[in-house]
Specification:
Blueprint lengths: L6 E4 L7 E5 L30 H12 L3 E4 L21 E2 L2 E2 L8 H30 L4 E8 L2 E2 L2 E2 L4 E4 L7 H9 L6 E3 L11 H7 L5 E7 L6 H19 L20
Parallel strand pairs: 2-3, 2-6, 6-11, 9-10
Antiparallel strand pairs: 1-3, 4-5, 7-8, 9-11
Length: 264
């Protein structure tokens, strides 16, 4: 277990003031957990990770020269994009799949997963944000990469990408406009999910301290192969670079969350 990393940090130029995150980058598990009682094929599905996000994050980091932090464990083990008190932190059932080793669960096991996976990932994000702040003397721009299924239940999702945000629109609005201006691209505004999620990664690391940020969702079928990843790197990298060059964005500005008062 000690040899299984909770996170990977891709080193880049902290002076750029840009950080890329990938909460659900991989479908991997420590060998001791097997497949959590599921068929191995379950880990090829979106329930285990955000398909396409790891290669896209690596491509963006390489193109921009920016640092990135990615989780190294499946969201089925514990979800890093959930607060520690969120009932969906460790899923018992996901899109119809019951996860046998997640229920019943002892308090000791839940705490073990928090201590060895969830918290180390968030500690790595906090460290990298602090390093960028020290290098630049200003707020970093944080971009969190995710992906979504083209169909949910029976509903076809028409968006090619979506930008999720809570109440701080400084990055979200220009991102939506820039991505939506690409030929043939439909960009959702808080679609296919609502970006106001108490305790999630953006809430924890950005909303509470006023750091400019956005969560970018790309439809999974569009980044499921090398060609798709290359195309979305081509689309997103210059947009990220352009936004990051705006000094007005690199300011701390705390906005009240739509989820209610901030926790201490």
């Amino acid at each position: 277990m000690q040899d299984f990393p909770a996170f990977e940090t891709i080193e880049g130029n902290n002076d750029l003031g840009l950080l890329i995150l990938a909460d659900h980058a991989t479908n991997r598990l420590p060998p001791e957990y097997g497949h959590l009682g599921l068929a191995p094929s379950a880990f090829l599905r979106h329930i285990a990770y955000d398909i396409g996000v790891e290669p896209l994050t690596r491509a963006l980091a390489a193109t921009l020269g920016a640092p990135a932090v990615m989780s190294c464990f499946s969201r089925l083990l514990i979800d890093p994009n959930r607060g520690e008190d969120d009932p969906t932190l460790i899923m018992k059932i996901s899109d119809g799949a019951i996860i046998p080793r997640n229920y019943p669960m002892t308090a000791a096991e839940a705490d073990f997963r928090l201590t060895h996976f969830h918290r180390p990932y968030h500690d790595a994000v906090s460290r990298k944000i602090a390093e960028i702040e020290q290098a630049t003397g200003r707020a970093p721009l944080v971009m969190s990469m995710h992906s979504f299924t083209p169909i949910w239940k029976t509903a076809v999702r028409p968006w090619h990408a979506g930008i999720l945000w809570d109440s701080d629109a400084r990055v979200a609005r220009p991102l939506i406009e820039a991505i939506g201006a690409q030929p043939g691209i439909v960009c959702g505004d808080n679609e296919p999910y609502d970006g106001a999620l108490r305790g999630d990664t953006m809430y924890r690391h950005c909303m509470k301290s006023g750091i400019p940020h956005a969560l970018i969702e790309v439809r999974q079928d569009l980044i499921a192969d090398d060609e798709g990843v290359a195309e979305w790197n081509r689309i997103l990298a210059p947009i990220f670079e352009r936004l990051n060059a705006d000094p007005a964005l690199h300011r701390y500005d705390v906005h009240p969350s739509r989820t209610g008062p901030y926790e201490d």
